[in-house]
Write a structure and sequence with these properties.
single chain; 10 helices; 2 domains; mainly alpha
Length: 206
């Protein structure tokens, strides 16, 4: 996942510098280790600060993995349904958040993470399990026996595709080094393996 919502100057401004500073402070050691360069706190011009920070998020692979994992969780949870459930849970635990103040979805999720990391991650896991996923697929009328056999792409081909997509992302300001291609085992193959593993052994002759 890219950190696209954090590459928006408008979104970063909505979070505010104090909250972002507190967030980064949780990853001081990791940021130092990976030599990530964040805009200095001494930069007084907010427009320039948020623009430089947005540029940092365009290349998430240069940031600590632990931090990008949290940011990805924040993005996934920061839709209307996720924030609605998270707000209810946060109020039940009486977290010190001023609910009278108008806040963005990202702001609410970040606030909860800073105050109660365990609660935020718990709600994120639940949200991932129940959220609606939409996708499109196409069937075929060709009988199985007449279909062409699928030849899995080699590692070289997968890397070629990954680089091509990554170059498109760079050209279209979607970040650099953000593309990952993961091989997934075919469901029918899993079923066949399960069937074989569950086949009872034939009793031996006495």
């Amino acid at each position: 996942m890219s950190l696209k919502r954090f590459t928006s100057v408008r979104n970063l401004r909505g979070l505010g510098r104090p909250l972002l500073k507190e967030f980064f402070a949780r990853f001081n050691d990791e940021l130092t280790e990976c030599k990530a360069t964040l805009p200095p706190d001494t930069l007084e011009n907010d427009d320039e600060y948020f623009k430089k920070l947005a540029d940092v998020f365009f290349s998430p692979k240069k940031l600590p993995p632990k931090m990008t994992d949290v940011l990805e969780a924040v993005i996934e949870l920061a839709d209307d349904k996720g924030v609605e459930d998270l707000t209810i849970a946060a109020k039940e635990k009486q977290l010190a958040i001023d609910w009278t103040k108008k806040r963005t979805n990202l702001d609410i999720v970040m606030q909860v993470w800073l105050l109660d990391e365990e609660l935020m991650l718990k709600m994120h896991n639940e949200h991932r399990l129940v959220r609606t996923t939409r996708f499109m697929y196409w069937g075929t009328k060709t009988p199985p026996a007449e279909r062409l056999a699928f030849t899995p792409p080699t590692d070289a081909v997968v890397e070629l595709v990954r680089k091509a997509v990554d170059e498109w992302c760079v050209d279209n300001h979607r970040g650099e080094d953000t593309v990952t291609i993961t091989r997934r085992l075919c469901l029918s193959r899993i079923r066949r393996r399960c069937a074989r593993s569950l086949t009872p052994c034939r009793p031996g002759r006495a």
